From TrEMBL:
Keywords annotated in UniProt: ATP-binding, Cell membrane, Membrane, Nucleotide-binding, Translocase, Transport
Listed PANTHER family: AMINO ACID IMPORT ATP-BINDING PROTEIN (PTHR43166), PHOSPHONATES IMPORT ATP-BINDING PROTEIN PHNC (PTHR43166:SF6)
Protein name listed in UniProt: Phosphonate transport system ATP-binding protein
Record-annotated ABC transporter domain positions: 2-241
GO molecular function, one term: ATP binding
InterPro entries: AAA+_ATPase (IPR003593), ABC_transporter-like_ATP-bd (IPR003439), ABC_transporter-like_CS (IPR017871), MetN_ABC_transporter-like (IPR050086), P-loop_NTPase (IPR027417)
Organism: Paenibacillus taihuensis
Pfam families named in the record: ABC_tran
Domain of life: Bacteria
Length: 241
């Protein structure tokens, strides 16, 4: 269980982007973040991944007070949380499998990324992950020959192959056609249910959040103004964002 309390992010000499945001993340939960452009969605995600520093607040992950643990806290987050930026890129001339195996910058030793050398159990783990995102028949297809949705699913596999239990993902279906978007979100939802992976996804466009998320949290100008079960939002709730 993850507890975010009073997360505030002040840009030095700039705006206060997040203002006392508090919410919990349960194992296996799919949380969508909604909010207008500039409301702080991506900053919230990057703060959860510790890619941005927190100005104040507390961050408890499995009972560990992360911000008080310094480098150990950072290592725990890097181990347990995978961060996927909007429109992730694959190495075009490497297969889907190789992308999963060696593409995760920062999680694979540099010598292994450069040489492409992998251990047998890494290979099995990557194949498992590719199967979980429903792409086993595309494992040996080159990155640039995959469709947008397939690339996104490979990127999800790459992000999770090192055993993370939480996936933080920015606009997972941005730029995808409705069919591919549906496939990506079905995979993500399935992972939550079968592997108890928690997902926090910025999903502002369309009604994807309402259709796939267990919970929707909403930001307006850096404040959390909505925290509801995943369902069709009322007009009043939409007005809050
Ligand atoms: N390093 C920074 N310096 C100055 N302003 C920043 C910085 N980082 C974020 N901001 C501002 O904070 C606000 C929130 O940015 P953020 O990217 O989190 O919004 P968002 O909700 O993800 O927007 P979008 O939907 O357009 O991607 C924006 O107004 C942005 O300009």
């Amino acid at each position: 269980m993850i507890k975010v309390s009073q997360l505030t992010k002040q840009i030095p000499g700039g705006p206060k982007v997040l203002k006392g945001v508090s919410f919990d993340i349960e194992p296996g939960e799919f949380i969508a973040i909604k909010g207008a452009s500039g409301s702080g969605k991506s900053t919230l995600l990057r703060c959860l991944a510790l890619r941005e520093s927190w100005t104040s607040g507390s961050y408890i992950v499995d009972g560990v007070d992360i911000l008080k643990k310094g480098i150990l806290g950072k290592m725990k987050i890097r181990r347990e949380m995978a961060y996927l930026e909007e429109k992730p890129t694959l190495i075009p001339n490497r297969t889907a499998l190789k992308n999963v195996l060696i593409g995760a910058v920062g999680q694979t030793p540099a010598w292994r990324r450069l040489t492409g050398m992998v251990r047998n159990d890494d290979y099995m783990g990557a194949m498992d992950m590719i199967e979980k995102v429903g792409l086993i028949d595309k494992a040996h297809q080159k990155g640039d020959k995959l469709s947008g949705g397939e690339k996104q699913r490979v990127a999800v596999a790459r992000a999770l192959v090192h055993g993370a239990t939480v996936l933080l993902v920015d606009e997972p279906v941005s730029g995808l056609d409705p069919h591919a978007a549906e496939q990506v979100l079905s995979d993500l939802k399935n992972m939550c249910k079968t592997q108890r992976i928690s997902i926090v996804a910025v999903m502002h466009q369309g009604d994807w959040a309402e259709r796939f998320a267990d919970r929707i949290i909403g930001l307006n100008n850096g404040e959390l103004v909505l925290d509801i079960k995943g369902r069709r939002m009322t007009e009043r709730e939409k007005m809050l964002l």
